[in-house]
Amino acid sequence: LVHYPESTDHHPHLCSYAREPLFHSFTITADDGTRTYGFVHTFYERVTNPRITTAMQTLFQMHRVEHQASSSASSPSSSYGDTLYGSKALCLLMPLPFLQAARNFLSQLYQAVMSPAAPPLPLESYIHNVLYEVPLPPPGRSLRFHGVQGPIVCQQPDATDLPLGEYPLGDAFALLGVDNVVRLLTCVLLEMQVLLYSRDLQCLMTVAEGITCLLFPFQWQHIYLPILPGPLLHLLDAPVPFLMGLQRRDGVQRSSLNLPHEATLCFVDIDNRSLEVPEGLPSFPDQDQLAQELREVLLRYGVTSQPASSPPPPASPSPRPPASLVLEDLIEDRQNGNLGGEELAVLERLQALACRGRCLTGPLEDREQKELRSAKMNVELREVVAGRLAAVFGRYEEFVSHSASDLDSWLSNPEGTCSFHKGSFLSIQPVSHLHFLSRFLETSMFLAFVDRKLISRWVDSEPLQRLFDQRLERGRGVPQGPPGCQKGPALFEPVQTGEQRLLKTDHTAIHPHLLDMRIGQGLHQPGFFPTLQADVLSRHAPNKRRNLCYSRLLDPSPSAVTQTHREFVYGLLNECRLKTKRLLVERIGKESLEAGGPGDLSGLQEGTLIQGLCDLLERTWGHGLTLKQGPSTLWSHLLHYQAVRGKSDSPARPSGVCGGHVITVALVRAWIHLALEKKLLSKHLKELLSDQELLRQLYRPHAFLLCGEEREQFLFHLLSLNAVDYLCFTRVFTAISIPYRVVIIPMKKLSIAMTTVNPWVCVSGELGNSGVRQIPKNTQEIFFQCQNLGRLSTLQLGQDSGGLLAKCFIECVVVYNEVTGHTYKFPCGRWLGKGVGDGSLERVLIGQLVSPGAEEDSGKLSGTTPAELGSPPQAVQAVLGSLGGRSKILSTEVQEEMREAANNLVKHFHKPEQERENLTVLLCGEGGLVQALHKFFLHGLRSNRLFQRNVFVWDFVEKAVVSMDTVDQTDDLPGSESQRMPADSLCHYVHAINDSPRNMGKEGKFQLFLCLGVRDGLISRWLPLLAESPLTPRTFEESACSGTAVLWTPSRGVVHTLHGFTVTLEASLVRGVTL
């Protein structure tokens, strides 16, 4: 008992009629995470105290005088105070959730009080028995003890079964529906803030306990208050994950709750069977299959998930005469094998007489059958979910990193060790699971699960961890069906084991007996609970009583509340430190991957970390908030700041984002992503927090944003994110419209030539292309707006044929993203026009991001070449220099560049798909394979300037193809049919490129030739043909030709390493050519 009647400080609830008794439970969590379960049977007893009834009559008279003007129909009845009822509660505390046993014991205690006949023993005997003489059942065993009116059975699972969970999952599914329960389970696994809402307190406990018992093998690590008391409503401001329940009050609407963290809150309205989840909630792995399996289990037990109101409290069994109780005890003794011989014969005669006289009634048997059915259904439902989680994490041990040598070294620096290889684990998962798993791997419950696995190397593993590992070990020897499928013995064996424990009890506790107590006190009065003799209950076993331990969170005193919120402040600051550190370390690790450094961050994981940062900012801005507009706390602060400072001075409206009917949460996430990409997040937030007067108006004194020192450290951690580049806005918000600005930069000495051409551009990126955009004549730039193109990769630059005078030398093209401030440079260094250079009227340029967030770019407004862009790259200059004379590049340098380019491509294809960079840049950009192959062909190319005419590699390829066609027509091509096929494909590809309607020059055609050859795996077959061509000795210097074995053969081997990879070329590269 929490307290005896003489120590109560709480006032009963008074009413004018006897309400039906109610049952509900609650839980108290200690600081170490252990829980104590309370079970409450509330009933209403007639008030006999004359002082109370007289006071109520006086209040009634005063009320009637004040409302004399009211109509008689609306006036209270004069008999209002004649009969008065007050609430009383019987409460039993247990260390384990023995829901059915506690409910039955309290119900029998209440029925004994209401019964006209006195119980066989004083109530103190039964209470003393259950408190001090009834032990906990051993694991894997059941225990029978006695209530006032009959036996009660409770049991504990053994070490191979799922932990104890008696709260009826069938009721939870009936209350919410299968789909809503699965979504709620997803929110809890992802450690969102979950608020349950219902009029019925037991419904809150049923859903909360039901959903947490489905988490196996994981455990909830944060605030857990299924029933939130009134003095602790300040915990709704908690900026941490929580699972809490709030009782619905009459007349209170959902919209009037004014919850501070709605952007990150999962709100569960149990009475209306509705679920409000945060935006972007991922699906549980194989969610539809899981829901179907759960429906099949519910259907077997006749449970439907149709809309239903809160279930009424179960009807208590009607009181039975003592003869019935004795007979039930004898029946149970026979089931346990404790009767034999004459005793059995006597029992059979008694049963026959009882059946004839209807002494044994049905409610007891019906109740036992319902409890058994509920227990079996619980096990099956939990096994279905546990099987799904086991299928997902069945190989988790392979990715646990045991880097620490001993327990002390691990405990001294748990954050400095990589405990789980998340990228490798995600790489083996189905694509449909990645969104959920990437977020789940960042939760505290998963990190605690991995930590327990690591610690089990040095100490005994915890029961849950050991049980999960044992189940995985047993499952490895069983043929696997579809993921999560546990039909047959694997599912029904635990059900049968639990059923046997309930049907045949293993132990029987001491029967209640008469205590040494005062005679005459506490006489039985039907309908009135007697005053218990507290000294009798205390003196018999004082050493077994213990003080109730509870978390400091449950202390409602002002000093404790202040300390609680101070700890929340420290927790937010530490979480910010860890999240920014993780973002920095993993991002730098990804960038060092090319240099051989560690790093396993995929684009999906990076998006998950940034999503976590958005949630952290929302929770931080919601701590202690008093005045809010809309669901987002940060956006609300931005709106208030905007109203104070004015729209023109406010950073609250990010350019290009606020169009359309985008919801508030999406707006603030876009604002965060954009500020992070532009490296302005810390700067904007610092400006937002500079208005101290506004902060004091919006927040309570304990709010994080009013803690000056912690707030400055928070901003400093966010400022550290500027050390790396992010494209989070560009890659996440793909459907928005972006304004782009394209500037063509000609060679300064020949800039006047731009007036003679009529150029056009087509910009392409990861998400699409802009289409052809005509640049106005006599200008060098164009503005246009189109759907987000993502990170830019290629730019097609061309001009309409305008005669021999329409030509210009293009140094580069620069494209500006006017929203993110990114600048892309597309080097050219070529002529554009007929009769000059290679005569190209169209070029495909490869871009590179040169200055993310460069809003102060000096060349942005002037139209001249920005200083940081410089001249064409050195590699382009080297290629240009080789056209006019003998190349001074050594053959070893050429081979090394080819090997390096091919190696980069191989590494690209061996990365997870989410981690791969732009293939076009690796293939055609600076240092790419196409450029390396171009250098290879240029090496030793003879300088033939007859009539001032340049010689291009494409000239050599065309002549070689003409030679092959001539030889093929005379059927003199040596070799077998397999040797003739490469020659046929070479001729076919060259003819197709020449027949293309595009106005590509010779260099453009050769680039397309190499790209198609790499894509289709034909380059390694074409190289020997070109090396053996009779034109080769006349086209190349002797140093190149004589090195057939030095250059051509090794180069063929380098390119051959790319065979087997799927190379997908951008449409801008192969436009107009169908092969």
TrEMBL record:
<dbReference type="InterPro" id="IPR037516">
    <property type="entry name" value="Tripartite_DENN"/>
</dbReference>
<dbReference type="InterPro" id="IPR047277">
    <property type="entry name" value="PLAT_RAB6IP1"/>
</dbReference>
<dbReference type="GO" id="GO:0016020">
    <property type="term" value="C:membrane"/>
</dbReference>
<dbReference type="InterPro" id="IPR001194">
    <property type="entry name" value="cDENN_dom"/>
</dbReference>
<feature type="region of interest" description="Disordered">
    <location>
        <begin position="304"/>
        <end position="323"/>
    </location>
</feature>
<dbReference type="GO" id="GO:0005085">
    <property type="term" value="F:guanyl-nucleotide exchange factor activity"/>
</dbReference>
<dbReference type="InterPro" id="IPR043153">
    <property type="entry name" value="DENN_C"/>
</dbReference>
<dbReference type="Pfam" id="PF03455">
    <property type="entry name" value="dDENN"/>
</dbReference>
<dbReference type="Pfam" id="PF02759">
    <property type="entry name" value="RUN"/>
</dbReference>
<dbReference type="Pfam" id="PF02141">
    <property type="entry name" value="DENN"/>
</dbReference>
<dbReference type="InterPro" id="IPR005113">
    <property type="entry name" value="uDENN_dom"/>
</dbReference>
<dbReference type="InterPro" id="IPR047278">
    <property type="entry name" value="DEN5A/B"/>
</dbReference>
<dbReference type="GO" id="GO:0031267">
    <property type="term" value="F:small GTPase binding"/>
</dbReference>
<dbReference type="InterPro" id="IPR036392">
    <property type="entry name" value="PLAT/LH2_dom_sf"/>
</dbReference>
<protein>
    <submittedName>
        <fullName>DENN domain-containing protein 5B-like</fullName>
    </submittedName>
</protein>
<feature type="domain" description="PLAT">
    <location>
        <begin position="738"/>
        <end position="846"/>
    </location>
</feature>
<feature type="domain" description="RUN">
    <location>
        <begin position="920"/>
        <end position="1070"/>
    </location>
</feature>
<dbReference type="InterPro" id="IPR001024">
    <property type="entry name" value="PLAT/LH2_dom"/>
</dbReference>
<dbReference type="InterPro" id="IPR005112">
    <property type="entry name" value="dDENN_dom"/>
</dbReference>
<keyword id="KW-0677">Repeat</keyword>
<dbReference type="InterPro" id="IPR037213">
    <property type="entry name" value="Run_dom_sf"/>
</dbReference>
<feature type="domain" description="UDENN">
    <location>
        <begin position="1"/>
        <end position="460"/>
    </location>
</feature>
<feature type="compositionally biased region" description="Pro residues">
    <location>
        <begin position="309"/>
        <end position="322"/>
    </location>
</feature>
<dbReference type="InterPro" id="IPR004012">
    <property type="entry name" value="Run_dom"/>
</dbReference>
<comment type="similarity">
    <text>Belongs to the RAB6IP1 family.</text>
</comment>
<dbReference type="Pfam" id="PF03456">
    <property type="entry name" value="uDENN"/>
</dbReference>
<keyword id="KW-0344">Guanine-nucleotide releasing factor</keyword>
<feature type="domain" description="RUN">
    <location>
        <begin position="604"/>
        <end position="736"/>
    </location>
</feature>
<feature type="region of interest" description="Disordered">
    <location>
        <begin position="853"/>
        <end position="872"/>
    </location>
</feature>
<keyword id="KW-0472">Membrane</keyword>
<dbReference type="Pfam" id="PF01477">
    <property type="entry name" value="PLAT"/>
</dbReference>
